[in-house]
Amino acid sequence: MMTRKATAQNTEFKLRQTLKELKQSKETCDQLLRDREESEEEIKKIIAKNSQLKSDLAELHSQHEEVLYQREQLHNTLSSCSKEFDTYKRALQRIDDLERELSVANCQINLYAETQQLQETLHTQSLFEELMASPGTPLTPQCLISTNREVTHHPQSIKKVKKYVRISKFIKKIEKKIKRNQGYHRNITLRKEKNSLIDSLEIYSSKLN
């Protein structure tokens, strides 16, 4: 059997061992508390970082929406510019067509004037020859050369010739005026249309710039 002394020593040893274990447990608890505090600080940092990331994400989303809106606006602008450019090209083509039509119209007017003048000259000459060759008015070289002799020998025929010549000249003047007015109105119409197209071109050019 163990003596009291041995029992006391054994008890003391157990107490010391228990105290040592308690001390180790306390140190472990202290370490766990420190780890917990560090973990809490880390969690707080993570939460703050997460909040910042959410804010940044919301800002990026807003910027993305703005970029999409600007993209749509740019697409509409490009589409409008494309249509205006097509209109600009058509207007240029129309101006070229009008200039060609104007040139052709001027050529036709000049040709018509020359043709009318030639026809009137031939008609007047035909009337003159017909009158000079009518009965009582023989056509002779002397009649064609000498006006004084025509007046002396054939006063009635000469009066008729002069009358027809005056009428022919009057008709010729009237036809020239009508022709000039027609050509003038035609040119005015073409110029107005051309000026209108030029104004449209200037508007489209200013929009494109």
Task: Give the SSE map.
Blueprint: H1 4-132, H2 141-145, H3 147-153, H4 155-208
Helix pairs in contact: 1-4, 3-4
Give a structural overview.
Residues 15-115 form a coiled coil. Keywords: Coiled coil. There is one protein chain. The chain is an all-alpha fold. It has one domain (62-208). Helices cover 93% and strands 0% of the residues. The chain has four helices and no strands. Helix 1 (4-132) packs antiparallel against helix 4 and helix 3 crosses helix 4. The protein starts with a helix and ends with a helix. Residues 137-155 have low confidence and may be disordered.
Low-pLDDT sequence parts = 137-155
Into which percentage range does the β-strand content fall?
Answer: under 5%
- Give the radius of gyration: 59 Å
| Structure classification | mainly alpha
Main β-sheet: number of strands, strand sense, barrel status? Answer: none
**Number of domains in the coordinates?**
1
Task: Determine the N-to-C terminus distance.
Answer: 117 Å
The H/E string reads HHHH
Oligomer: single chain
Number of DSSP-assigned strands: 0
Mean pLDDT: 75
Tally of alpha and pi helices: 4
State the helicity in percent bands. over 70%
Envelope shape: rod-shaped
Keywords:
coiled coil, mainly alpha, 209 residues
What's the short story on this structure?
Helix content is 93%, strand content 0%. With 209 residues, the chain is mostly helical.
